[in-house]
Amino acid sequence: MEIINKIRQFREDERQLEWRGTFKEYLELVKEYPHIAQTSHSRVYNMIKDAGITERDNQKMYHFFGHDIFGLEDSIEKLVEEYFHSAARRLDVKKRILLLMGPVSGGKSTIVTMLKRGLEQYSKTDAGAVYAIEGCPMHEDPLHLIPPHLRDDFYEEYGIKIEGHLSPLNLMRLEKEYDGNIEDVMVERIFFSEDRRVGIGTFSPSDPKSQDIADLTGSIDFSTIAEYGSESDPRAYRFDGELNKANRGMMEFQEMLKCDEKFLWHLLSLSEEGNFKAGRFALISADELIVAHTNEAEYQSFISNKKNEALHSRIIVMNVPYNVKVSEEERIYEKMIQDSDMASVHIAPHALKTAAIFSILTRLKEPKNQSIDLVKKMRLYDGEEIEGFKEQDVEELKKEYQDEGMDGIDPRYVINRISSAIIRKDVASINALDVLRSLKEGLDQHPSISNEDKERYMDFISAARKQYDEAAKKEVQKAFVYSYEESAKTLMDNYLDNVEAYCNKNKLKDPLTGEEMSPDEKLMRSIEEQIGISENAKRAFREEILIRISAYARKGKRFDYNSHERLREAIQQKLFADLKDVVKITTSTKTPDESQLKKINEVIARLIDEHGYNSVSANELLRYVGSLLNR
Ligand SMILES: Nc1ncnc2c1ncn2[C@@H]1O[C@H](COP(=O)(O)OP(=O)(O)O)[C@@H](O)[C@H]1O
Ligand SMILES: [Mg+2]
Predict the structure, then answer these.
(1) Which atom of ligand 1 lies at the shortest distance from residue 339's CA?
(2) What is the pLDDT of residue 266?
(3) Nearest CA-CA partner of 242 in 274, 208, 202
(4) In this structure, is residue 180 part of a structural domain?
(5) How far is the CA of 182 from the centre of ligand 2 (A)?
(6) Does some domain include residue 584?
(7) pLDDT above 90 for 464
């Protein structure tokens, strides 16, 4: 009965939050907590801000989006700063409709949904509390009760600017129910809820012929006209359109550009003037964030239409491109798989990464700088250190194209292909090759891929495969080394001792006998040769490493096995080279002898315990690497 208790507790908590009082009492609250009177845009911005912001390398990370949106830091920062932050400060952008533009399945709806769910939660906190005239279908801002001629005085006393007029309905209620006594009007705390249609709305266009503007702005309630005597009596009107219901919060406008123009004009007057027209009433003030989304093709055809010219300047377009970082793409897949019915399937290490490599390659544009190929660019974007490139170069690459990531393969396609790979295989375990195969087969069925793109995409499948082959080989070789990290570290320490002695023209001490020895040239060369360092270049390489070590020491950082990309590579290669024949023979033999069998079992156990495989995927990996090594 745990759950019943939780339900009770929840109800109790909700009750604690309720508040109801007269307008006079509300003003006392406002005096103490002025933020409860903030505009919708400001509330949205504060919600995002309150969730926390971390700044790293000149990049702001908004925790609010960080849980569910990956790899879009640049776009999110622009969106928050240039739209939400500016709108919160009542700058001009507040008067424009926010239009998220980006390729299909690039996270637009996810962003909007996060804002909606976020507001629902935020309105339950002290910082995000919202109050409204009690019983008002539009949850009207109580401050609208302050008559226009007193608003300057109000500003002087409270420091709050009031926007908007009292709605016709509340004007009438004020007179009929409260005898004009503003201070007695009842105010209540409200809680945003899309389900209950409080402060959160969604509008999606249906058949343009049948769709009624009433969906947005409400309509006459014919059954009550007789009672109130006239169509222009606001009590005979149902303020139940999406614009009404979303007042004080936000409204999502799906497929905005597919919509009939007359709908757009309503929105524009709302965002520009803060009011809209409904029925036979004076303009109705509303305060809400309007977010729409669309893809690029639709947007292009919209702006190329002369008729829409006046609308352009009233829309602010924010790009939501695809993520272009491999590791973030992996996180997207992981999240989508967790949320699906595939959550229990074993997905072998590298499977998602390999798929991500393919996807990212389809999204990137060819570097203009000839010395960088697409794969290298992809690795640089992902934050990998590549010899000869600096952070500066990555920035330069990003600047080459303004519209990178606006096309290519979408995450949903990948997830669907993984899902069909799982269905096809009768064991609940899939690996990188299964995924690549499925991605490849799916290209024929993909609705929006041209033949030209298909050819490029086939190349990317091969490129992803190549990356995987390397990773697979390394993984198996690592698993062959008993305690890989330790072996690597020992070898490296040994190398560094020798390098130090060599550069400083010192001798080394034999740890056992204490005898003095010259640096072990053979050992050093055997490592350096792994990465093609020539006899002539060895001194420079060794000196560079010593410089790196002392640079680390100055910063108080420890120089370790991962601190120097190429050295790490060399050490790894050296360890593998010593093992090469063992790995090759053991993995490819069809009839292993007893000692080979023992080794195989050891390696499989290590793959399972330390590298995240299960017995199916570990065996598959071993067989595959065996075939690779024997090519
Ligand atoms: N950058 C991203 N970060 C996290 N999830 C993403 C990202 N891009 C796409 N997705 C996921 O892909 C799916 C489709 O995204 P969605 O928001 O519906 O896209 P859109 O509305 O742009 O078509 C969702 O499950 C979403 O979580
Ligand atoms: Mg969508």
Answers:
(1) 25
(2) 77
(3) 202
(4) yes
(5) 44
(6) no
(7) yes
Query: Is the pLDDT assigned to residue 237 strictly greater than 90?
Result: no
583 belongs to a structural domain:
no
Of the ligands numbered here, which is closest to the C-alpha atom of 103? 1
Q: Which ligand is nearest to the CA of 110?
A: 1
462 and 489 belong to one structural domain: no
Amino acid (one-letter) located at 285: S
Residues 61 and 107 in one domain: yes
Q: Find the domain containing 380 and state its range.
A: 326-467
Ligand 1 pocket test: pick from 69, 70, 99, 105 the residue with the most ligand atoms within 8 Å of its Cβ: 105
Q: What is the mean pLDDT of residues 256-274?
A: 78
Q: What is the Å distance from ligand 2's center to 211 Cα?
A: 21
| pLDDT for 540 beyond 80 | yes
Do 241 and 151 fall within a single domain?
Answer: yes
Of ligand 1's listed atoms, the one at least distance from the Cα of 323 is: 1
- Is the confidence at residue 446, as pLDDT, over 80? no
Over pLDDT 70: what percentage of the chain? Answer: 100
Residues 460 and 495 in one domain: no
How many angstroms separate the Cα of 205 from the Cα of each of 122, 215, 264? 29, 10, 11
User: What is the distance in A from the centroid of ligand 2 to the CA of 68?
Assistant: 15
CB 281 within 8 A of CB 323: no
pTM (whole model) above 0.85: yes
Token pair 């036979």 in the structure block, residue: 280
Whether the CB of 102 sits within 6 Å of ligand 1: yes
Q: What is the mean pLDDT of residues 395-415?
A: 93
In a shared domain, residues 437 and 502:
no
554: which residues sit within 8 A by CB, 6+ positions away? none
Which residue, 352, 351, 405, 350, is CA-closest to 377? 405
CA-nearest residue, atom 26 of ligand 1? 107
Tally of domains within the chain = 3
Is 237 in a helix, a strand, or coil?
strand
With a 6 A CB cut-off, is 109 part of the ligand 1 pocket? Answer: yes
